[in-house]
Design a protein that fits this description.
This protein is mostly beta strands. It has no helices and five strands. The chain has strands at 11-15, 21-29, 41-46, 51-56, 60-62. The two termini are 23 Å apart. The mean pLDDT is 87.
């Protein structure tokens, strides 16, 4: 579990560049990008499109399950 309390499978919102929020699922913490000068990242999955990506941690917020 990370410092925000996310665990694998938690429903989340991922903030997009246009200000909208996309529903996703938390997969896990990303590589130690902060060690290399970048922001901390997490891995997320988007079940509706069967895709996923690594995003900056500050773009992720908890989501209540429907």
């Amino acid at each position: 579990m990370n410092e925000e309390g996310f665990t694998e499978g938690d429903p989340i919102w991922v903030m997009q560049a246009d200000g909208t929020a996309r529903p996703g699922v938390f997969i896990g913490e990303g590589e130690a990008s902060a060690f290399f000068g970048g922001p901390p990242t997490v891995y997320v999955a988007y079940p509706e499109s069967k895709s996923g990506e690594a995003v900056e941690f500050d773009r992720v917020t908890p989501r209540e399950e429907d």
